[in-house]
Amino acid sequence: MSARMKYGEKTGPVGGVTPPIPTATSSSGSLYGDGKLLGGNAPPPDVESSDAVVRNPQEVDGQDAEAKLGLFLDFKGVEKPEPIRGEYGGTDSGPRRYEYEKLNSDLYAPPGTDSGSVPNAKWPLGLSHNRPGYKGRSGWARQQNTASLPAAKQMAGVDMKLAPNAYRELHWHTASEWALVLKGCVRVAAINDESQTFTDDLCEGDVWFFPSGMPHSIQAFDRGVEFLLVFDSGDFDEDGTFLITEMFARTPREVLSKNFQADVDAFKNVPDKELYIFKGTPQPRDIEKQNATAPGGFLAGNSSYTHHWSRQRPHEVPGGSVKVLDPTTFPIASGFSAALVTIQPGAMREMHWHTSSDEWDYFLQGSGRATVYAAPSAGRTFDFTAGDVGYIPRDDAHYVENTGTEDLIFLEVLQAPKFTDISVAQWLALTPRQTIKDHLKLPDSLLDKLPKEKTLIKKGNPDLLALAHGGKAY
Question: Cβ–Cβ contacts within 10 Å for residue 330, how many?
Fold first, then answer.
């Protein structure tokens, strides 16, 4: 029985090849044709011998609706989607992988409001190279940076898993590191240049931050841990981390002996290459046993490198909830501002943009979409699912709509001293009414209901095809 996987894809004759081709037992034929095949020399082909017609194309509910309605098209209900929106597009008879199109319906059959060219705003971490740790199934890491998402110039991300009691070895970076614990629990430790130490235990939903150049260690507890790292440089590369093992391996033994005032034999067991991620000795549950007494004391309060964000209650609004963490409440994390957003089915993160930073997103659960508007007249819609990174340049307007049947949970990260945005609805509400009417020709019934406070999330009809059936979007 074959172990090879089968994917939904277009099969049959394509590009002048009709598979399966005969199995050859020896070499025959020529790699090149002759001059008789050049245009003007070759006889004309029989143009009735081949066609690009798709017979009995399958369409999903809402696909025949007006293109500018931009309804979300759920292609999972058909075997072979087609890139059609109302009166636009056409069938696809060429090489295809149906699963890609089902995951990215707004790219394959874009809303009629999409226009022009917008840099790619999406990278699935499932397409990133997954680097394993040291032998013994100690863990792994995969990353997103400008190599995979060129527009993401301001931030990069790493998803890392440590097996029970495994370490991310002692290290430091040229970039600052902000982290959200996704699953499990972990102990982190660090020192700073003021001879101060820090140790803390974190679990799912908690955050740590280490400034650039700050040496630190990360060790999972006995049930393992997975965490998301965000760095303040789009060019950050996880493979370019400064490692304690490599520092010792690249330093002459004579220098090590002199620096540590120890016999040279003390260094004979130092690893000759990095450990990266490796299994270690279980840490004591009593954290006080690992709190080193430092000349500068122990870091706490506003100087703490951690924040137990899991214990912060979210701000609840119709359609979902939001909670924010920025230097206002986590002072040490200078420049990092984040919001953890939960959106109920049919609802959306309201139309907005950020004035001080690009936006780096990570989708933790559910599915959604966002249209990115870039000046002066470009717009493109992207679909996101769990494990995807989203990236939206500063000042580009956008929203995030829940397109699934479960809650959508995602993280918004800014490089800003405070989490702020410009709400499109609030902007219109606080602008002279006549000005808005002269520009957009909006009715008074709409303008009367505009909120003067930011709502953050707009509730919506879970039936995303309601407009196609005479219903409402909200």
Answer: 22
- The candidate with the shortest Cα–Cα distance to 156, out of 232, 52, 46, 266, is 232
> Over the stretch 84-109, which tens digit does the pLDDT of each residue have?
999 999 999 999 999 999 999 999 99
> Of 109, 97, 95, which is closest to residue 60 (Cα–Cα)?
109
| Cis before 376? omega within 30 | yes
Query: Three-state SS for 371?
Result: strand
- Could you tell me if 72 and 49 are in contact, meaning their C-beta atoms sit under 8 angstroms apart? no
Specify the residue for token string 């120890």. 262
Residues 296-353: tens digit of each pLDDT: 989 999 999 999 999 999 999 999 999 999 999 999 999 999 999 999 999 999 999 9
Per-residue pLDDT tens over the stretch 58-80: 999 999 999 999 999 999 989 99
Q: What is the mean pLDDT of the chain?
A: 95
Strands in 359-365's sheet, in edge-to-edge order, are 122-124, 388-392, 359-365, 408-415, 336-343, 320-325, 315-317
412 is catalytic: yes
Q: What is the sign, positive or negative, of the torsion defined by CA atoms of 73, 78, 80, 82? A: negative
* CA dihedral sign of residues 401, 408, 311, 360: negative
Q: What sign results for the dihedral spanned by CA atoms 174, 178, 183, 185?
A: positive
Inter-residue contact 184 to 206 (CB < 8 Å): no
224 vs 393: CA distance, rounded Å: 35
- Distance, in Å, from the CA atom of 448 to the CA atom of 347, rounded to the nearest integer, reads 21
d(Cα 139, Cα 137) in Å, to the nearest integer?
6
- Rounded (5°) CA angle 205-207-212: 155
Active-site pick, 204, 288, 412, 453: 412
Spatial CB neighbours of 443, under 8 Å, sequence gap ≥ 6:
none
